[in-house]
Design brief:
The protein is of the alpha/beta class. Helix content is about 35%, strand content about 20%. It is built from eight helices and 13 strands. The chain has a six-stranded mixed β-sheet with strand order 2-1-3-6-7-8, with helices on both faces.
């Protein structure tokens, strides 16, 4: 819906997304994805251009956000008419391996895209509602305000519910033709979403994520000092990535080792996500009721499993 609204509102067609991105598996959003594994061999991606990923650990410019941002301007100049419909980005890549975009990246890109007539869309499906601890929304970490925000997952705490948030002016473009969704406005899911938002505030889950996440990052960094196979520990709050490599200098992905640790941790009672471009990153995004005791159990199991490698 966000993609359609951006094109209708601006009257432009070209869209810029990021390499390593993940935005869904519908025929439209699949084209936005920047990973081969999430692209089926069907027509998709028309009018979509992928920019360099501002990845502080693996990117060619390290943590230099402005250098990555220059690639977006170059794409607009070389691969479009000079006018674009929008720019899509997770403000903190989830499926791509818990990658926080390089500092200073989004402010420059948002300005560039808006000058080219486009809208800025923030995919907050995995980052919203205080999970990052330091901020309620992922886009706040870069000091920007998007034109459209997409939400899901945590909004329903397991219930199927999603939302597209924008201004009345942008949303009004959908009135040009009939638009509806069979499941839209489901009263049970809507009530559940409201309840989740109330509990998040009442129980101060954002503060909780900040406190537990800080503790978990500390323990994981201690583990990094113990095992050379851990190349990077990154993240905020309860959105953390642990990347395994065979060599810290070359950063060769330790894909098989990651899969082995992943399975053995499961056998010991820890279900942990796995992702990243090379399948070598543990994606740690537990429920927001996750405690320090849970964090200790997670790290202890990871420690034991790695000691047996």
């Amino acid at each position: 819906m966000a993609l359609m609204m951006a094109r209708l509102y601006t009257g432009n067609y070209d869209v810029i997304a990021l390499r390593n991105a993940y935005h869904g598996l519908s025929s439209a959003t699949m084209g936005l994805n920047g990973q081969r594994i999430y692209k089926h061999g069907v027509p998709q991606g028309f009018g979509i251009h992928h920019a360099l990923n501002p990845h502080p650990y693996r990117g060619c410019f390290g943590s230099d956000g402005p250098k990555y941002a220059a690639d977006v301007a170059e794409i607009i100049q070389t691969s479009t008419s000079g006018r674009v419909a929008g720019f899509f980005a997770e403000t903190f890549q989830g499926v791509g391996g818990a990658v926080e975009l390089a500092p200073g990246y989004l402010p420059i890109v948002y300005e560039t895209v808006r000058k080219a007539g486009g809208l800025c869309i923030a995919d907050e499906v995995q980052t919203a509602f205080g999970r990052l601890g330091s901020h309620y929304w992922g886009f706040e970490t870069q000091g920007v305000i998007p034109d459209i925000v997409t939400l899901a997952k945590g909004l329903g705490n397991g219930l199927p519910v999603a939302a597209v948030v924008t201004t009345p002016e942008i949303a009004s473009v959908l009135s040009r033709a009939l638009h509806f969704n069979t499941f839209g406005g489901n009263p049970v899911c809507s009530a559940g979403g409201h309840a989740v938002l109330r509990v998040l505030d009442k129980e101060k889950r954002q503060q909780h994520c900040a406190e537990v996440g800080t503790y978990l990052l500390q323990r994981l960094n201690e583990l990094k000092g113990k095992y050379d196979v851990i190349g990077d520990v990154r993240g905020r709050g309860l959105m953390i990535g642990v990347e395994l490599v065979r060599d810290r200098q070359t950063k060769e992905p330790a894909k098989e080792e990651t899969a082995d640790v992943h399975e053995k941790m499961k056998d010991l009672g820890v279900l942990i996500g796995k992702g990243g471009m090379y399948g070598n990153v543990f994606r740690i995004k537990p429920p927001m009721c996750f405690t320090k005791e849970d964090a200790d159990f997670l790290v202890d199991v990871m420690d034991y499993t790695m000691s047996k490698m």
